[in-house]
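Why this split exists: single-chain examples teach little about how molecules sit against one another. For that reason, every record in the complexes split bundles all components of an assembly together and asks for one structure covering all of them. Below is a record exactly as it appears in the raw files.
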Amino acid sequence: MIAHADTIPPARHPLIAWILRWILTTNHKEIGTLYLCFSFLMFIAGGAMAMVFRLELAQPGLQYLGADFYNQMVTLHGLIMVFGAVMPAFVGLANWMIPLMIGAPDMALPRLNNFSFWILPFAFFMLLSSLFMQGGAPNFGWTLYAPLSTTYGPPSTDYLIFGVHLMGISSILGAINIIVTIFNLRAPGMTLMKMPLFVWTWLITAFLLIMVMPVLAGAVTMMLTDRHFGTSFFSAAGGGDPVMFQHVFWFFGHPEVYIMILPGFGIASQIIPTFARKKLFGYNSMVYATASIAFLSFIVWGHHMFTTGMPLVAELFFMYMTMLIAVPTGVKVFNWVATMWRGAMTFETPMLFAVGFVVMFTIGGFSGLMLAIVPADFQYHDTFFVVAHLHYVLYPGAIFAMMGAIYYWLPKWCGNMYNERLGKIHFWTAVFGLNLTFFPMHFAGLGGMPRRIVDYALPFADLNLVSSIGAGILGLTQFLFLYIVVDAVRGGSGKATGQVWDSAEGLEWTLPSPAPLHTFHKPPQVD
Amino acid sequence: MSESHDTNGTPRYYVPHSSVWPIVGSIALFITAFGAATFIQQSTDKVLTATGTYGGIIFYIGLAAIAFMMIGWFGAVIKESLQGMVSGLLDQSYRQAMMWFILSEVMFFAAFFGALFYARLISVPWLAGAGHKLETHLFLWPDFAETWPLFMTPGGTATEAMAAWGLPFINTVILVTSSVTVTFAHWALKKNQRGALQAWLALTVALGIIFLILQGVEYVHAYNDLGLNLSAGIYGSTFFMLTGFHGAHVTLGATMLAVMLIRILRGHFTPENHFAFEAASWYWHFVDVVWLFLFTFVYWF
Ligand code: HEM
Ligand SMILES: [Cu+2]
């Protein structure tokens, strides 16, 4: 094995050498760690913003924030969570696990890998710096709708636009790297249909990223020229249309929500068989379901725009296509449940998160179906019901999946077991907090409480107070998570074996724990 | 080093230990992006608070830093290739990565083509009263009539259309020819006919440059004689966005081919091993195909 530091002259001060190592590294494990740490930082930043506006919403009336600052917080919260927390966390997991799962020596393009990561801190520095600019941060929501972002956007919008370009470059390069690694560096004998599902779901996610991130880049570029160069893409007076922005944005946006959930599907499909001590039920159908979800995700974007003006045939088309997505999604949920059926189940923390994922993601799927019904959506659109939906698919969906993944693979990464009891406490407080936060939003939304408005009518006061209390619990419990991870890295509750979980299968478990810096120089043979 | 080697000494898969170029690139991108946003604010009248002229300077420093990074990074990769570090597997990775990169570029253009079709098929007819948008027409712009190219916007800005069969057609011929010449260059490379390779490739680069010059002439004509500019409504917006980004890609592609020419003059590439050349020529074909769509839907129909 090669000692990594051997490229850095030993005469350097150890601190500088340490910093340089992380900045210059081309190792997939180190870059994976960087991604995960960065995304946790963003998770806390975005979460802090949520605390700020939940505090404001705890009571009706204006307490602490003005309307404009409230909107800035909501906008940055959404952008940071989507592009800063969820996506980088999944890329971090891909970096760590895909080479280990397919028996590759590293990612296919190691330098590019480092590049994709180090673009991100700069991009988010630029986005966050908008808070301190004259006119404040962007305040039009993470969906950047024109003309709020063109005619009426604050000056900082331009920095947001270029920040989005940087994030896009980072995601595209990262996705290219992942696809190429999967296609090109699999160990001999690992055919596509033998790949672990996490790898499969990431393959498809990476494809989605390559297809839609450039479209977002195009959308914000048109925003920029509309703002400064007199074009009229989103201005009806010049023959364009503000609704066109929504089409372009959601052509990106809907696949984007699947980018945020498909790797989570993969994770659940890794964890559940291990703790049910059974093979995954319906592997092939899982692969096909993932592929059909990805395909359908390109032709449902209109469901975000039912109320903004489309011909009736288009409304119907998007409604039926959206409902169709529930079929492959249902196949997946069925397969997870069937895997657990009559399994010898135990509920270690990763499994708790995976089961929580299946149950609560399904709640979000059902509210999605309600939203997909055109006449119903006329009622629900832009209310807190949508907020409840998206948080049920994203929090117990994406975030629970990645937390489950971290508990599941952490012993492999650092060589120590985490504290199981604290892990369980973390899970249950998170479940409690998140349902307390987001479940009442269903009722507030059905009652007609609009989203993205700083104040609300008196009848919603109790529901909002409950939500705010839940949010506080949910926020605090993340520090428990941080403690658990740090504790595990520093020793935790003892050394982990190579196998870690007794019935876990896959190449990653054939390696010692912690996995050495360089693995699979000689590819393993898979049969 | 413990990389397992093939019999001929090429590592099975070369993993560089560390590299400064990515972080240089990230910083360069950041400077460019930050500079660009500042530059744009300072040089257009939208943002009254943004005064000063340093934005442009930052932007150009950023661009220079990107160029520096690319020279350094690609230089390192070229050195590895010349030292025989690039195994067949790594070569495959480079090829696949380039293909996916081109797909992402295709999707970037797809966004603007989407805008073009949306304007032509939906927003302009709607503004003229078609479909279920009759009220917009009646209440806001009752006099607006649908045409494409859009000679008169609802707001009353007039422009003339760019004719397809003048310069644009000549440019089409030039670009298609250049796609053929680059293929001839590739065949010559595979047959190890270095003279023919240099000639065909030089011709390709020259055709690319002529294309860009003619495009510049066309822009001047549009601005001065036709009243066709970025602010001339959705026709001008889509026209310049699509041709402008295409022109930027031609510039990039021609630069790539020029670098290949320099490398060939220095004796790089063999009939078996010439990924960089192929990548540049794929990119060139991509730029050509985009142009064919442009010619058809922006200029012709
Ligand atoms: C059965 C599957 C699903 C269906 C039928 C569905 C349907 C919908 C519909 C119709 C809307 C628009 C509501 C409105 O604005 O009026 C919506 C919003 C949303 N959905 Fe879903 N959805 C599904 C799954 C997902 C998943 C898996 C995710 C992400 C992981 C997701 C994330 C979102 C987000 C973020 C929004 C809100 C976007 C915004 O306006 O800010 N959905 N969903
Ligand atoms: Cu959607």
